[in-house]
Specification:
alpha+beta; 4-stranded parallel beta sheet; 17 strands; globular
Length: 632
């Protein structure tokens, strides 16, 4: 038996001070006692070598875009040197040391839910990870092409990561994006002018139809609310083209776009959200510029049906005879799909203020996330209330931006699962970099799994020793969360690659009113405000009904249970008035503690700490609930 594996019968003979000493010693030695987990002796230098190798992820940054290069051979060589030095010291390991390319030290990636070859390539070739399609396996990372339901996240372990946030549909679906941004625009009209005016049909069909009553003809672009790849999109200048019973999203058409080579284009920007509470947002320097294949002319009755002129969707234009594929990944400024950097250079040469435009794009992205942050945080905390790292979910989103003739960015839509299909070498270069560097920022390593299992083992041992489960107070949780956030920020700053942190930022306080307003909107729409007010009122009524049960006889019963002197000294001072008024219960009002609305979303520990029921009944303040519990 392990020298620390002792149960209740073993520690009954120890005094409290000695028992606490043994528990503390177990926590210290627990990290060295690896017999059950690794099946061999623990060697400090070998473990340090493993953790150092894993912290580097088995790759190094070698280019300006931080192209990841596998360095398995170097890692293996360092392990060999360590083993030689151990032999000189007389240390013999019973089992090979786990490393990035050994079974015990490899990250396991579940790819059952993705069809993209580039994801498998990055996992295997860039990082040297193992891939699986079995859901039952104890994976470290799961990559899905579809949305993640809250039920899936709630079943995940703390060391596991998944590439979607539950609730991201709030901006990924066209109708929800329009609804959320429109609500924010009513409160902040000057700050949310970055998306075209939107109507959700058929709910707003009356208002939409009224737009056609004016003399000047207007052009609208109509999209199915849940489509992709340009399916079902059409332009119209009359409401008669729109079926009032169908679900569409109608927007004012930006009829004066920025043109390059007389072609309309939009930008596909890759945004990484690495945390939701607080938000952690990154924008990659590489992206795609997708061009239409027909020279642009303003919308008139004769060209509204020319989708290759007005729509920039790659899925539509690649079928055109005029579409030019980019076959050379180094020539990123030709064809109908070009690199983002090549467009920036061309626009700057034409006199556009690129610095200002980039700042406007960053603000656009941050404000979009501010509109749904309370919803994302609530769902995340409800599924994983014990996660203090804010890092079990991440997501690479595709923001589609259109520039008008004044270089003002307009948000067109947000894709929660942008296409990672690679049709050309240029496609492969950009998307491989975006995925690889996002995974590097998330610090995915097998050591997280081992630490989690070891912590669970220590927690179980502590529970056996003490007979109770350790719970962190709100102050301790906040302190631990802050330390994890600081450590995570340091890691991210060293491994940004081509990503730029756009939030938190220096002017983060400017976005606080948006998040606060979004929280108020969410509470009102979900009935959270009414719920808490209703709960408080119902508790007051329960207190009134139970007032009849508290009287002199009840006090005597409590004295017989806990002792006369103790009850009278601890309870009498706070219950004298209640006992006197128990003879006239109609006039008595007892109020229960009011729970702050911000605490209610999954913070049950805070509720317990702010109520008297969490105390020892022998010293607890005498309340209606305690009286009912011990008297009836």
């Amino acid at each position: 038996m392990n020298k620390y594996d002792f149960g209740r019968d073993d520690y009954q003979d120890y005094d409290p001070a000695e028992l606490e000493c043994r528990i503390n010693q177990y926590e210290i030695d627990g990290f060295a006692d690896r017999g059950e987990e690794d099946g061999g002796e623990y060697n400090e230098e070998e473990e340090k070598d493993v953790l150092d190798a894993e912290s580097e992820g088995g790759f190094t940054h070698t280019t300006s875009h931080s192209t990841l290069t596998n360095t398995t051979a170097e890692t293996s060589g360092s392990r060999k040197k360590t083993k030689d030095s151990d032999k000189d010291k007389g240390i013999v390991s019973k089992k090979p040391v786990p490393g990035p390319n050994t079974k015990a030290g490899r990250v396991l990636v579940n790819i059952a839910g993705t069809k993209y070859e580039i994801v498998k390539h990055v996992s295997r070739k860039v990082f040297g990870w193992k891939v699986t399609i079995e859901e039952e396996e104890d994976w470290d990372l799961s990559w899905l092409d579809t949305a993640v339901l809250p039920e899936r996240l709630s079943k995940m372990k703390l060391y596991q990561k998944i590439n979607h946030f539950p609730g991201m549909y709030s901006i990924a679906r066209k109708n929800y994006l329009g609804r959320n941004l429109s609500r924010m625009a009513k409160l902040f009209p000057k700050d949310f002018k970055f998306f075209p005016r939107t109507w959700l049909l058929p709910a707003e069909y009356g208002d939409f139809r009224a737009q056609f009553n004016k003399k000047k003809a207007k052009t609208f672009i109509v999209k199915p609310e849940a489509s992709c790849q340009g399916k079902g999109i059409f332009l119209t200048r009359t409401y008669k083209d729109v079926d009032p019973t169908e679900h569409f999203v109608a927007q004012r058409y930006v009829h004066k776009p920025y043109l390059i080579d007389d072609l309309k284009f939009d930008l596909r920007l890759y945004v990484l959200i690495a945390g939701c509470d607080p938000l952690r947002l990154f924008l990659h320097e590489e992206g795609l510029a997708r061009f239409a294949t027909e020279s642009y002319n303003g919308p008139v009755g004769g060209n509204l049906s020319d989708v290759c002129m007005h729509l920039t969707n790659y899925a539509i234009n690649k079928n055109s005879e005029k579409f030019v594929f980019n076959e050379d990944k180094e020539m990123d400024d030709v064809g109908h799909k070009r690199s983002l950097q090549s467009v920036w250079k061309l626009m700057e040469a034409q006199g556009t203020d690129i610095v200002k435009m980039k700042k406007d794009i960053n603000k656009l992205i941050i404000k979009t996330f501010c509109s749904i942050q309370p919803h994302l945080a609530h769902v995340y905390k409800s599924c994983q209330p014990d996660d203090l790292s804010n890092g079990m979910c991440f997501e690479i989103l595709g923001f589609d931006i259109l520039l008008d003739d004044k270089a003002k960015p307009w948000l067109i839509e947000v894709n929660h699962s942008p296409s990672f299909k690679v049709d050309t070498p240029f496609d492969r270069k950009v998307k491989k970099t975006v995925i690889s560097e996002a995974l590097q920022i998330m610090d995915i390593s097998a050591k997280n799994r081992r630490r989690h299992k070891l912590a669970k083992k220590n927690e179980m041992q502590r529970r056996v020793l003490t007979g109770k489960m350790q719970r962190l107070s709100q102050e301790e949780r906040a302190e631990k969360s802050a330390k994890l956030a600081e450590k995570r920020t340091q890691w991210e700053n060293k491994h940004l690659g081509g990503y730029e942190r756009i939030y938190p930022c220096e002017d983060a306080d400017d976005y606080a009113p948006f998040i606060h307003a979004a929280g108020d909107i969410w509470n009102e729409l979900t009935g959270a405000n009414k719920k808490y007010r209703k709960d408080d009122d119902s508790k007051d009524k329960v207190g009134d009904r139970n007032a009849n049960k508290i009287g002199p006889n009840s006090a005597k019963k409590l004295e017989s249970i806990y002792g006369k002197s103790q009850v009278r000294s601890e309870v009498k001072a706070k219950t004298t008035n209640s006992i006197k008024k128990s003879e006239t219960p109609r006039n008595r009002v007892i109020k229960t503690p009011i729970v702050d609305r911000s605490v209610a979303d999954g913070a049950s520990d805070n509720l317990k700490e702010n109520t008297d029921l969490n105390q020892d009944p022998r010293t607890a303040v005498f309340t209606v609930d305690t009286a009912r519990l011990y008297v009836t």
